[in-house]
Amino acid sequence: MPGLMAGTDPDPASPVSAGEFERAMTAIGGFEPAPAVAVGVSGGGDSMALLLLLRHWAASCGGSLLALTVDHGLRAESGREAMMVGAAVRRLAVPHRILRWEGSKPSAGLQAEARAARHRLLAGACAEAGILHLALAHNRDDQAETVLLRLSRGSGIDGLAGMAPVRAEGLVRVMRPLLGFPHDRLLATCRAHGASWVEDPSNGDRRFARARLRAARELLGAEGLDAERLCGVARRAGRARSALEQATADLLASAATLHPEGWITIDPSALLAAPEEIALRGLARCLVVVGGGARPVRDDAVERLLAGLAAGQAGTLAGCVVRPRRGAFMIAREPAAAAERLHLAPGARELWDGRFDVRVSPLRPGPVTVAALGSAGWREWGVERRQFAGRDLPAAVRETLPSLWSGTELLGVPAILPMSGSNPDGQVPADSAMLAPPFPLGRQAFTVVSDRDGII
């Protein structure tokens, strides 16, 4: 599609036109009438260009736009800079919010942690504002750098597919409408609108891999590894990834069952009869869902686990127990891994163990602790409520259910019985714990743009 495909630029120094941008947004599609959109604005040329283009697009379709700036707090001047960005955005009559990354910062893996914090803050602000669409300003040069960086780290098909133009992440849909446009055209867009921008000093900091790759761009381009060719690699790898993910979703839809207590059963014959790549992807997806996504799943470890299952052997991986059970393969949370303890006030809500959305009733007389039920807790609960004593749940599932405690007193197991106990006034608190894994079992396949078919 024009505007999203690499190599279709009419002039490498020309601004992006409203028509080009509209075609890019049309290719992404999926917007409601009068859409509400949020845009991440750092103050750099790419994000300022996206703000300008989105401002016109939203007005043309009767929609609304909210600009969000994340202050990571990594430099003394970052707060002042965020306020300057806000002032520039408001001059364009666009509402603006500053989101701050609070707390201590890691000494290792800083850029990765900052990126995760940025996405978390942006998604949270969108959910709070009731906005479904979050636009980010990654462009063709960013895509090329992503592919090159992942190639240097030995990535396979998934990594070489780069960034998707649109991807559902939790409650927000992240879109990147500028992936087909080079950085220079976005700066030209800012100039054409008389808009200024600031450069992030970290972009040239050679401590970071992306900055080192940028410094080597001219040399790599002379050897044929220019942005156009690298984005072509991303498109072709993206097509392959999309097909693989769709086949994986089909396998899981027909063979796997996700139980509300947070475990999965899967038909062994379907899993083992599938092509090995699809079986490995399906098994890895199950591990991420049941394990709360806290630990990365290594390809070689999943291969060993699948081979063991084919031989009738149990295994543990990514915080999960995997073993044959009653004619199926069972994937459950590993009891030793469900060690998180949350202290919540009445009326509070928080994600526990990366898997359960726990809500404490406001009728509770005091704070509670959310922790895994454990074997002793299950025995106590089963004796007290005999209808659950014989419930057909594997031991690992029972022991890793979220439970509410006051000191050593077990108050309830809201994942299987939402209402329990009473407060001093005799009212029954209605606590709840709903399974809310970080990634759905049958998530949307990777999207890729094609000249023939648009978004796949």
TrEMBL record:
It is an enzyme of class 6 (ligase). It is found in: Cytoplasm. SUPFAM superfamilies: Adenine nucleotide alpha hydrolases-like. It catalyses: cytidine(34) in tRNA(Ile2) + L-lysine + ATP = lysidine(34) in tRNA(Ile2) + AMP + diphosphate + H(+). Keywords: ATP-binding, Cytoplasm, Ligase, Nucleotide-binding, tRNA processing. The keyword ATP-binding applies. ATP binds at S42, G43, G44, G45, D46, S47. It comes from the Bacteria. Pfam families: ATP_bind_3. InterPro entries: Rossmann-like_a/b/a_fold, TilS/TtcA_N, tRNA_Ile_lys_synt, tRNA_Ile_lys_synt_N. Its main location: cytoplasm. Transmembrane segments: none annotated. One of its GO terms (molecular function) is tRNA(Ile)-lysidine synthase activity. Its EC number is 6.3.4.19. The N-terminal region contains the highly conserved SGGXDS motif, predicted to be a P-loop motif involved in ATP binding. HAMAP family: tRNA_Ile_lys_synt. Belongs to the tRNA(Ile)-lysidine synthase family. Ligates lysine onto the cytidine present at position 34 of the AUA codon-specific tRNA(Ile) that contains the anticodon CAU, in an ATP-dependent manner. Cytidine is converted to lysidine, thus changing the amino acid specificity of the tRNA from methionine to isoleucine. This is tRNA(Ile)-lysidine synthase. It comes from Azospirillum picis. The lineage of its organism: Bacteria, Pseudomonadati, Pseudomonadota, Alphaproteobacteria, Rhodospirillales. The gene is tilS.
